């Protein structure tokens, strides 16, 4: 089932949670709503589910008007951040709930319910926990049961609100991959909300970056990471060095067409080269800190009054053998310039760095 | 070696506090309770049982239990509805509703009784209309039920509001998104989650309903064998210098109180166990 979101706005008192949102989610796609807390992503998800009503705008399911459809009639599976399992029911009864509350005519027989529930529990690999209560499960198990419960009614759309937010890193990674596999097997549309950029980039087909109730960018994980449409997206997805043209003396070269003082250049830490000899168009700096972090080595350089963050591979660092206090030269390999109006400038295609 | 912890108070402080606490309990709770039974049984068990067999005493017991039972369904419906509205919705006048629920705790029961006399009495607002339709509320059982209702309705709501607030509405939302209707959600998800809290509130409001004196006294009219509840009956008997009868009736009230106390303790214990089980926060999964 495809979802179309048209001009949706929502306020809570004076707070604008959503400001004229337009978004199409085609059938079968796994979409991530990514943004900092308070950006409106959860509100949007709840409006799609029918748990919150929009002040204006409409929602279409498979092209049909669904704005005022009751949550119970939307055929949407919802997975909550804190699982929301029925605490007084066993795992089996939790998963069976959606089948047991069907109108008598559509309700499957007890034997059929049992078969379906055990099949779903098998799918989430927890059939051995059928008789336990939610309180006896670990966080990861609870979230998988919550997923099985949502899938029991065969929803056309699966909505997940920060599904892995309350879990620790290792479980989160496992569940992520598992969700991706599940999504591909079930042939449904899924939307999940997250504030974790790594999660969004790894799992989703498409990432919708939101901020202050607005959509900043919609694109594939690669697009939003390597071609961010706004300074916000640049900064939200990964580390970035921000250079102001005022500080960078030779920087006017890039900006020679317009003499705007307030342009800003964004450079990812891993897009900077360091050399021990003066570089033709490099800048000089002093090594401030050297932090080996996993496969990378993070170097902090001081250039005039600014700190520049650089990430080198271990091999590169072995070759350079940087020590604190050493004088080096650095040069960005690629960068991106945004104007004062914060909109992408004329040719955002990975520009060469010119001083 | 003397093992005193830094946080431990000196011995005399502990003993003083302990004896003040226990002494107070003995003089103001233990002694009166024992006195009730001693007085009631002063002339032996047969006389005690005889006093309880008095038709007026028996009718008072019946009326007390009857009123408590009549009030119960109203209290449950109101308590659950009010707690639901307050815990799960945002609406204008919410804080006003919360304040109003506490009103019966703040108002003297006698004033509560008088309010109903002013409303339903012969000279009251609805008095003429009631007389026309030959309906009797004041100095009759309906008035006593209404007065008891006024006194007891906060108990269940007050018990449920914090419970339902702490549970949030995630589970209800999950039920609805799975296709449950409003009733199915209530019976299958909400009610099971609040059942112990509800029972606790029922016990408390029941105890109050059976023991209520002031409000009921004002609207009852003290018609013997008709509108006398146990507490009112105790007063009448005592004023007539029928000590055995008064204390026998009082002993029934005291017994009801003890039963309530035991029931309350059991429910409290169950509730604590259940909340502990349901709210266990497990350490993040390691494997």
From TrEMBL, chain B:
<keyword id="KW-0997">Cell inner membrane</keyword>
<comment type="function">
    <text>Part of the ABC transporter complex CysAWTP (TC 3.A.1.6.1) involved in sulfate/thiosulfate import. Probably responsible for the translocation of the substrate across the membrane.</text>
</comment>
<feature type="transmembrane region" description="Helical">
    <location>
        <begin position="243"/>
        <end position="263"/>
    </location>
</feature>
<dbReference type="GO" id="GO:0015419">
    <property type="term" value="F:ABC-type sulfate transporter activity"/>
</dbReference>
<feature type="transmembrane region" description="Helical">
    <location>
        <begin position="137"/>
        <end position="157"/>
    </location>
</feature>
<dbReference type="Pfam" id="PF00528">
    <property type="entry name" value="BPD_transp_1"/>
</dbReference>
<keyword id="KW-1133">Transmembrane helix</keyword>
<feature type="transmembrane region" description="Helical">
    <location>
        <begin position="198"/>
        <end position="223"/>
    </location>
</feature>
<keyword id="KW-0764">Sulfate transport</keyword>
<dbReference type="InterPro" id="IPR000515">
    <property type="entry name" value="MetI-like"/>
</dbReference>
<keyword id="KW-0812">Transmembrane</keyword>
<dbReference type="GO" id="GO:0005886">
    <property type="term" value="C:plasma membrane"/>
</dbReference>
<feature type="transmembrane region" description="Helical">
    <location>
        <begin position="60"/>
        <end position="84"/>
    </location>
</feature>
<keyword id="KW-0472">Membrane</keyword>
<comment type="subunit">
    <text>The complex is composed of two ATP-binding proteins (CysA), two transmembrane proteins (CysT and CysW) and a solute-binding protein (CysP).</text>
</comment>
<keyword id="KW-1003">Cell membrane</keyword>
<dbReference type="InterPro" id="IPR005667">
    <property type="entry name" value="Sulph_transpt2"/>
</dbReference>
<feature type="transmembrane region" description="Helical">
    <location>
        <begin position="96"/>
        <end position="122"/>
    </location>
</feature>
<feature type="domain" description="ABC transmembrane type-1">
    <location>
        <begin position="61"/>
        <end position="268"/>
    </location>
</feature>
<dbReference type="InterPro" id="IPR011866">
    <property type="entry name" value="CysW_permease"/>
</dbReference>
<dbReference type="InterPro" id="IPR035906">
    <property type="entry name" value="MetI-like_sf"/>
</dbReference>
<keyword id="KW-0813">Transport</keyword>
<protein>
    <recommendedName>
        <fullName>Sulfate transport system permease protein CysW</fullName>
    </recommendedName>
</protein>
<feature type="transmembrane region" description="Helical">
    <location>
        <begin position="12"/>
        <end position="40"/>
    </location>
</feature>
């Amino acid at each position: 089932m495809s979802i179309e979101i048209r001009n949706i706005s929502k306020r809570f008192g004076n707070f604008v949670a959503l400001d004229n949102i337009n978004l199409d989610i085609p059938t079968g796609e796994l979409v991530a709503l990514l943004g900092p807390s308070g950006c409106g992503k959860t509100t949007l998800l709840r409006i799609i589910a029918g748990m919150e009503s929009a002040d204006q705008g409409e929602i279409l399911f498979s092209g049909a008007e669904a704005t005022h459809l009751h949550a119970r009639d939307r055929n949407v599976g919802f997975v909550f951040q804190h699982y929301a399992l029925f605490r007084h029911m066993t795992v089996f009864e939790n998963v069976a709930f959606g089948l047991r509350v069907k109108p008598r005519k559509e309700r499957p027989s007890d034997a059929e319910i049992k078969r379906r529930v055990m099949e779903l529990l098998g799918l989430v690999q927890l059939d051995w926990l059928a008789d336990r209560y939610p309180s006896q499960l670990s966080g990861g198990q609870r979230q998988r049961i919550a997923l099985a419960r949502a899938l029991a009614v065969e929803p056309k759309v699966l909505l997940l609100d920060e599904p892995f937010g309350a879990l620790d890193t290792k479980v989160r990674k496992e569940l992520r991959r598992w969700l991706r596999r599940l999504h591909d097997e079930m042939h449904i549309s899924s939307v999940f909300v997250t504030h974790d950029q790594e999660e969004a980039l790894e799992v989703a087909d498409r990432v919708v970056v939101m901020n202050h109730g607005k959509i900043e960018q919609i694109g594939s994980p690669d697009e939003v990471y390597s071609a961010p449409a706004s300074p916000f997206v640049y900064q939200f997805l990964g580390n970035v060095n921000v250079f102001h043209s005022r500080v960078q003396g030779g920087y006017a070269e890039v900006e020679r067409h317009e003499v705007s003082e307030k342009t800003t250049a964004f450079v990812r830490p891993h897009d900077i080269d360091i050399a021990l000899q003066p570089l033709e168009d490099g800048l000089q700096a002093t090594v401030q800190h050297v932090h080996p972090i996993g496969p990378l080595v993070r170097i902090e350089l001081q250039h005039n009054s600014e700190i520049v963050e650089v990430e080198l591979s271990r091999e590169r660092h072995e070759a350079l053998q940087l020590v604190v206090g050493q004088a080096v030269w650095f040069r960005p390999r690629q960068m991106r310039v945004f104007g004062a109006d914060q909109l992408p400038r004329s040719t955002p295609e990975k520009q060469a760095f010119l001083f | 070696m003397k093992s005193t912890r830094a946080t431990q108070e000196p011995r005399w402080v502990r003993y003083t506090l302990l004896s003040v606490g226990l002494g107070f309990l003995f003089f103001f709770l233990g002694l009166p309770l024992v006195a009730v039974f001693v007085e009631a049984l002063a002339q032996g068990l047969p006389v005690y049982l005889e006093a309880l067999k008095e038709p007026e005493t028996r009718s008072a017991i019946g009326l007390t239990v009857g009123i408590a039972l009549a009030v119960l369904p109203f209290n449950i419906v109101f308590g659950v509805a009010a707690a639901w509205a307050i815990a799960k919705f945002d609406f204008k006048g919410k804080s006003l509703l919360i304040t109003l629920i506490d009103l019966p705790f703040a108002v003297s029961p006698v004033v509560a009784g008088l309010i109903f006399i002013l409303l339903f009495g012969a000279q009251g607002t609805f008095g003429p209309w009631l007389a026309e339709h030959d309906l009797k509320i004041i100095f009759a059982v309906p008035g006593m039920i209404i007065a008891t209702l006024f006194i007891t309705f906060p108990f269940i709501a007050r018990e449920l509001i914090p419970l339902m607030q702490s549970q949030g509405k995630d589970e209800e939302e999950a039920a609805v998104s799975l296709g449950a209707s409003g009733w199915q959600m209530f019976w299958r998800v909400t009610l099971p989650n609040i059942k112990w809290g509800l029972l606790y509130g029922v016990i408390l409001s029941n105890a109050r309903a059976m023991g209520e004196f002031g409000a009921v006294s004002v609207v009852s009219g003290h018609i013997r064998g008709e509108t006398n509840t146990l507490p009112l009956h105790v007063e009448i008997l005592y004023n007539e210098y029928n000590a055995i009868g008064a204390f026998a009736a009082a002993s029934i009230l005291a017994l009801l109180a003890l039963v309530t106390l035991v029931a309350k303790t059991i429910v409290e214990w169950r509730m604590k166990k259940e909340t502990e089980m349901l709210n266990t926060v497990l350490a993040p999964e390691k494997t």
